[in-house]
Amino acid sequence: MRKRYGRYGMVLAGAAALVATMVVASPASAHGAMQMAGSRTYLCYEDGLTPSGQLIPQNPACQAAVASSGVTPLYNWFAVANRSGTTSGQMAGLIPDGKLCSGNSNYYDFSGFDLARSDWPKTHLTSGSTIQIKYNKWAAHPGTFSLYITKPGWDPNQPLTWSELQSVPFSSVTDPPSVGNPGSVDSYYYWNATLPSGYSGYQIIYSVWARSDSVETFYGCSDVVFDGGNGEVTGLGGGSTPPGSPSPSVSPSRPASPSPSVSPSRPASPSPSTSPTQGGGSGTCGAAYSVSTQWTGGFQAQVNVTNTGTSAMTGWRVTWTFPSGQTVTQFWNSSVVQSGSGVTATNLAYNGSLAPGASTAFGFLGSWGSSNGAPTNVACTRV
């Protein structure tokens, strides 16, 4: 049976299959979220990671969010976005009071993350200090990041309103540097931010990422405590086990392969398979396939596409054949068609042009039965 996928990819194979795969195979129209200081959706995702690949949150607020909105938002923690505005970066005129943390998203139901509670996972910081902000780069876009903070005395037991935020961002940056390939929890934008002085206790840092190439805007609430902390996170796993004490200072010699706080309990089975091939046009392109994470019956994979030729390329097509009957269920940063065991992925408008030596990446979720063997015929062609 030939299966077609839209831009962000859900299998269109009949109502029964749709119901059966609704939770884990919903569209991945998503692009990023704060990781330092961690947003509600990101830290609840971390809180819910299990060895089986299921997301089962332990934190009471994360549990309440899932009870309200379902588990799908956790699988799409990077998708708190709204594209209903006439321009990007709209705030009070677009997002109603009480809907700030969900961005009143028209992608998924994130309303559970608007719940007025004081027991969300929290990042511990020091007022007036300079930290390194990390904002996940699930998909790369140009734009401006702005960080706001609640006013002293705001009430966490009431829905967050625009009047409770300072009107001027304490940090704003356009097109900051980044590390890692898109489509991974290990990739992010980063920049230095000086936290507001004179703060103590529980506050919310509110992030707004306004794309400069679209009206799409991403929003997020990061729960923080100003108590002299250095980036420690509490409230994960029911609040009993902080994940460690990351160093938030910026390093000019930042490593190319960062290691953010990802739960070590989720099993990974990397299976890289690279097969650069001669494609159409001038020069060549290469594609490297690898399994990022694997669990019983499912996996996440990434394919890196590189212009290995000497001239610029304007588009690419990657093909492979699954050896063990695997099925693509969700994808991002490409357009995918699967026919039987054969898969074809093509570039989108924003990631087809690559200079010599440049690369991009796309990823997907898949299902498997008896085994999850890696393709051996991954090929890239210029288009």
- Would you list the SSEs in sequence order as H and E? EHEHHHEEEEEEEEEEEEEEEEEEEE
Which second-level CATH architecture of the largest domain applies?
Distorted Sandwich
**Which sheet architecture does the biggest sheet show?**
7 strands, mixed
| Rounded average pLDDT | 80
Instruction: Give the strand content.
Output: 25-35%
Under CATH, the topology of the largest domain is which? Coagulation Factor XIII, Chain A, domain 1
Secondary structure: helix percent: under 10%
Overall tally of domains? 2
How many β-strand stretches? 22
- Shape descriptor: globular
In short:
The chain is mainly beta.
Task: Characterise the protein shown here.
By secondary structure, the chain is mostly beta strands. The protein has two domains: 31-239, Coagulation Factor XIII, Chain A, domain 1, CATH 2.70.50.50; 273-382, Immunoglobulin-like (Sandwich). The chain is built from four helices and 22 strands. The protein has helices spanning 15-20, 40-48, 60-69, 72-75; strands at residues 2-4, 34-36, 81-82, 122-125, 130-136, 143-149, 171-174, 178-179, 188-194, 201-211, 217-226, 232-234, 273-274, 277-278, 284-295, 298-307, 316-321, 327-332, 335-339, 342-346, 359-367, 379-382. The strands form four sheets. Strands 3, 4, 6, 7, 10, 11 and 12 form a seven-stranded mixed sheet that branches. Strands 13, 14, 15, 16, 18 and 21 form a six-stranded antiparallel sheet that branches. A five-stranded antiparallel sheet has the order 1-19-20-17-22, with no helix packed on it.
